């Protein structure tokens, strides 16, 4: 009974909030007003609270621009979490565009959809991401290319850093800043989440989205740590593969510190 009530409350809050903000976002998108970047953050903040995601932040968003955030990826909830702490746009795989509800929301948030397997489209997709960076938007890249179980960081794909390279000629000082961000699900109902229970928060690709969302909504009360590490400067002399490995190592360090409860707040 309580679980069903929670689901009903979350669904009602989602509908009321989304329908109330939708006309404003559509108008802002139509005229290019800056509120189109800020409104999604308000929406994500409220939905995190309604669902029961307790987001805690260590470190801070870099003030340097252009700025590319590179994070590990555990679940669809990562979008809500990062969207709640900063005005960002996401790089998403093309199939997300067709997902029920989430795909529609991603389009409203102006996500950049990429087809990683279609090489002939790579140039245009990289150009779109680099244009967003140069315009001052903060772009989020999930460099693992898939989701993990929340206990580890999987190898980063260095080719996904191509947008940073493409933005360099247009960056004011010939430099793009890449900031590592670690996302860690660390608690459930106020209790530390052990290694074997952490996959409850994760969303592996072989699990249907609908049932997983319902389970998260029913359970609620998840503690999530977001760790911002120092940004890494990236210019024409920087080796892309070395940068990918460095950023990957810093994301892993942040994840491990959060999982072990060793963050400085």
Give a description of the structure.
- The chain has one domain (2-259): 3-Layer(aba) Sandwich (Glycerol-3-phosphate (1)-acyltransferase).
- Helix 1 runs antiparallel to helix 2 and helix 2 crosses helix 3 (77-85).
- Strands 1, 2, 3, 4, 5, 6, 7, 8 and 9 form a nine-stranded mixed beta sheet that branches.
- The mean pLDDT is 87.
- It starts with a helix and ends in a 6-residue tail after the last helix.
- The protein is built from eight helices and nine strands.
- 43% of the residues lie in helices and 19% in strands.
- It is an alpha/beta fold.
Topology (elements, then pairings):
Layout: H1 2-31, H2 35-51, E1 53-58, E2 67-71, H3 77-85, E3 88-93, H4 102-108, E4 112-114, H5 122-134, E5 138-142, H6 162-167, E6 176-188, E7 191-192, H7 209-219, E8 222-228, E9 232-234, H8 240-259
Parallel strand pairs: 1-8, 2-5, 2-6, 3-4, 3-5
Antiparallel strand pairs: 6-7, 6-8, 6-9
Helix pairs in contact: 1-2, 1-7, 2-3
Please give a handful of descriptors for the protein shown.
265 residues; alpha/beta; Glycerol-3-phosphate (1)-acyltransferase; 9 strands; 19% strand
Summarize the structure.
The protein is 43% helix and 19% strand. It has 265 residues and is α/β, with parallel strands linked by helices.
